[in-house]
Every structure is written in structure tokens, then in C-alpha cells.
Design a protein that fits this description.
The complex is a heterodimer. Chain A is an alpha/beta fold. Chain A has helices at 44-52, 73-78, 95-105, 113-120, 136-149, 166-181; strands at 6-15, 18-28, 33-37, 59-64, 67-68, 80-83, 154-158, 185-189, 199-202. Helices cover 29% and strands 24% of the residues of chain A. The longest helix of chain B is centred in the middle third of the chain and has 30 residues, at 90-119. The chains are: A alpha/beta, B mainly alpha. Chain A binds chain B through residues 49, 52-56, 74-75, 77-78, 80, 82, 84-93, 97, 101-102, 104-107, and chain B through 1-3, 6-7, 10, 13-14, 17-18, 76-79, 81-89, 220-221.
Chain lengths: 219, 221
């Protein structure tokens, strides 16, 4: 048995004095998908943000190949492709400009992969359009193309299927499957069925939510 | 192309897509300055004496005008998360944002100010000296303003709060910037004043990127 690439142990997160989730532990190996499910407010987004290092966790560790990612956050961030509930696109820039710039900000160069990403999400006809003129679903497709372009081993996706029509959902599935087949990992918070073989983790209300914070109230 | 240049070029490109935003800042600068002769009266020797102070204050207000969108736009469309998650230091991103702000406000204001100085009756080397002091002093305004913008990110009425935070911190720059022209009129050189302005800019350069990055991380939580 190979040890999992990504190992999360005892992760807890506190928002506004309330424990959103507590003692979340899981491991994820190459080519595996984890779907985060749970009611609204159960902490799916908070878990994704804690994994990315955007929010310091209350307790617990995230390790990659057995090394705590907090030791070298820059390298860790280089391994991530992030899709939040906001797309992270500039409205005044075109689809192509957004993709190229996002990739360069990640320290990479899109090169030949750009055409593939545009094709995968059927964006060729929209490539030269400014993002603010696009519909919500088209914007989501652009954001997903940004993820597919990134070559990051771990995808962190918050409601990836939001606003997508059936063909776009199928395109997302294909992209996710080829990412997993290439040995990538993905964690997606979702309400809908992703339609891709994977494990799932249900976040629920934490029983210990009334316990006082160990290090005092956060600001 | 590395992250710093990419971000700087992106912000400049965004400004080019909406040139009106810079136009408004420059127009504000001109209109605010022109109000003084209208209010005070057309006595040339009075105007020439207050010119440097008026132009410096107007430049300070004009620079603040566009600052509240500096990080707010990135915060609202989610691109701030991408900067927070970029695999290079956030301090450099903060610096790139402030540099872009300076290129589109501080730099044109410095070039415009000598012309307005002449209209105020500044003569001899004074208009040029005014331009030089603004050129050396405005980077400090962009950096301090960037810090105020990062600290007020997500706050209500952030524009007013931003001005309240930034203006007191800009006082030393204002004093030495306007003081340089008075020193020139008194027959002294401006070298000391410009050196102090440069020192203030370097102190801002060496401290604010870290503070901005910390404030942005806090806002991203």
C-alpha cells in the first residue's frame, strides 16, 4: 500500500468564534477525487480555504508526501489550482488574456496548452471577448479552463458545476477525468453529483461547536 | 515573464482599457488647483508663494482618489485569491500594484505640475524643481496609500477611512516636498529636501510591502 500523497489530520477551523468543522482527517492518493458534501454552512468552502492555506486552521496539519505544507507555503501554493465561488477573472480583459495572465501569475507559461484548454471548454468562439460581456456559465467555463491549463497536481474546486449547462458539465467531467488519469488529485465541494468516480466526505454540524476556543477568541 | 512584471503589466493594461479613470484623476488635479486663484484672487506674488503647497496638496488628494479601488477590484472578482495563492511572495505583488498605481497617477501628476506651477507664477527653476520633488515624493504616496487601501479592504465607507489613515502618514513627504520650493525661493538648493524625500520613499519601500501583504492575507481569510 502506497502512502497517500495528501494527508490531512485532525483539521479544525473556526470562523467568527464558531467551530465550523473539527477533526477532519483523510488521505488522498494520486488519481483520486474527493467530493465534499454537506448542508449550506457545513464548512465545505472553509475546508478548501484551510487546505489552500488561505485561512490558518485552528488545529491539525496538511501534509504532502509526508511533509507539513505549512513549512514551505510557496511550494505548496505552486501545487494548487484554485477555483473559488468567485471566478478570479478580470472583466475588462479577454478570455485569452485572463488565461495567459493567470497562468503566468502561477509562474508557468501556457504555450501550446492554451489551444487545448480553449477547445476543451468550447471557448474558441469567445476567446477574444471581454469577460464582462460573458454569461455566468461562460465565465465559469473560462475559470475551469484556467484550472485545466494550470498543470497543478491538486485541484481545489468550490462548486465547479455552478451555472454550467449539460455540454459544459460533460466538458468539465472529461477534463477532470484526464487530470485524474494523469495522476492528479482533486477535491471539490459540491451539491450536485460530479459524475466522476471518487470518494466523498460529508461535513456535518460539529457537536463541539459550543466548546470555548483554546487560544482565546479570534479577531 | 515573472509574476511581478505580469501583475504590473496586467494592471497597466486594465488602466488602458478604461483610460477615463486616469483622466478623472488628472482632471481633478487641474480643477482643484485652479480653484485656488479663483478663491484667493489673482495677485501673482501671493499665488507664486502658495503654488508649491497647493500643488502638493492637490497631488496628494488626486493620488488618494483612485486608491480605494487598488485592491478592492481584485477582492471583488476573486483575483486577490489568485495572488494570495501564487507561488511567489505576496510582498512583490503588493509592490507591483503600488508601482502600477504610481505609473498611472504619480508620474503624470509630476509631469503636469510644472505646467500648472507656471500658471501660478512660479518662475526660474521653480517649476522644474516642483516636478522633481513630486517625482521623488509621489512613490511614497502610492506606497502609503496602498497600505491604507489594503487595511481598509472590505470595510464600509472605505474611501473616507483610507484618506484618514493615509493623509497623516503623508505629512512628512508633503512638508519636504513643498518646503523644497520655498528653500529654492530663499536662495538655498533643493538637494537636501530631495534627499529627504528620497529617504522617505526608501523607508516606505522597505516597510509597506510587508505590511500590505499582511493586511491582504488578513482580508483573504
Amino acid at each position: 500500500m502506497v502512502p497517500p500523497l495528501l494527508e490531512v489530520t485532525g483539521l479544525a477551523c473556526r470562523r467568527g468564534g464558531r467551530l465550523v468543522f473539527d477533526r477532519v482527517s483523510f488521505g488522498l492518493g494520486a488519481g483520486e477525487l474527493l467530493a465534499l458534501t454537506g448542508r449550506n454552512g457545513s464548512g465545505k468552502t472553509s475546508l478548501l480555504r484551510a487546505l489552500a492555506g488561505l485561512t490558518p486552521p485552528e488545529a491539525g496539519t496538511v501534509s504532502w508526501r509526508g511533509v507539513d505544507v505549512a513549512k514551505d507555503p510557496e511550494t505548496w501554493r505552486g501545487r494548487l489550482a484554485w477555483l473559488g465561488h468567485l471566478e478570479g477573472l478580470k472583466g475588462d480583459l479577454t478570455v485569452i488574456e485572463n488565461l495567459l495572465i493567470a497562468e503566468r501569475l502561477r509562474g508557468g507559461e501556457a504555450g501550446d496548452r492554451l489551444d487545448g484548454a480553449l477547445l476543451a471548454f468550447d471557448l474558441n468562439a469567445l476567446a477574444a471577448r471581454e469577460v464582462r460581456t460573458l454569461s455566468a456559465g461562460q465565465r465559469r467555463r473560462t475559470a475551469l479552463a484556467r484550472i485545466a491549463l494550470s498543470q497543478a497536481p491538486l485541484w481545489l474546486l468550490d462548486e465547479p458545476l455552478n451555472a454550467l449547462d449539460a455540454p459544459a458539465q460533460a466538458a468539465f467531467r472529461t477534463a477532470l477525468q484526464s487530470h485524474l488519469a494523469a495522476g492528479g488529485l482533486a477535491i471539490a465541494a459540491t451539491h450536485a453529483e460530479l459524475g466522476v468516480e471518487g470518494r466523498s466526505l460529508e461535513l456535518g454540524p460539529t457537536l463541539s461547536s459550543t466548546s470555548p476556543p483554546p487560544g482565546g477568541e479570534e479577531g | 515573464m515573472n509574476g511581478f512584471t505580469t501583475l504590473l503589466m496586467r494592471d497597466l493594461r486594465l488602466v488602458l482599457r478604461r483610460p477615463g479613470d486616469v483622466g478623472v484623476v488628472l482632471a481633478f488635479f487641474v480643477v482643484a488647483t485652479v480653484l485656488f486663484p479663483l478663491g484667493i484672487g489673482p495677485e501673482t506674488n501671493v499665488l507664486a508663494r502658495i503654488a508649491a503647497g497647493v500643488l502638493w496638496c492637490a497631488a496628494l488628494f488626486a493620488a488618494l482618489l483612485s486608491l480605494d479601488r487598488l485592491f478592492a477590484a481584485d477582492y471583488e472578482d476573486g483575483t486577490l485569491d489568485l495572488l494570495l495563492l501564487a507561488p511567489w511572495p505576496l510582498e512583490l505583488a503588493a509592490l507591483a500594484k503600488c508601482a502600477a498605481h504610481w505609473i498611472v497617477t504619480g508620474l503624470p501628476l509630476s509631469l503636469l505640475a510644472p505646467v500648472l506651477g507656471i500658471a501660478f507664477g512660479l518662475d526660474g527653476p521653480s517649476p522644474l524643481a516642483l516636478g522633481v520633488t513630486l517625482l521623488v515624493g509621489t512613490p511614497t504616496l502610492s506606497l502609503i496609500g496602498g497600505l491604507a487601501a489594503a487595511l481598509t479592504l472590505g470595510a464600509r465607507k472605505s474611501g473616507a477611512l483610507l484618506a484618514l489613515l493615509a493623509l497623516p502618514l503623508c505629512v512628512p513627504t508633503l512638508i519636504f516636498g513643498a518646503g523644497a520650493i520655498e528653500a529654492l525661493a530663499a536662495g538655498e538648493g533643493i538637494v537636501t529636501h530631495v534627499a529627504i524625500l528620497a529617504a522617505l520613499a526608501l523607508v516606505a519601500l522597505a516597510t509597506t510591502p510587508w505590511a500590505i501583504a499582511a493586511a491582504l492575507r488578513q482580508a483573504g481569510e
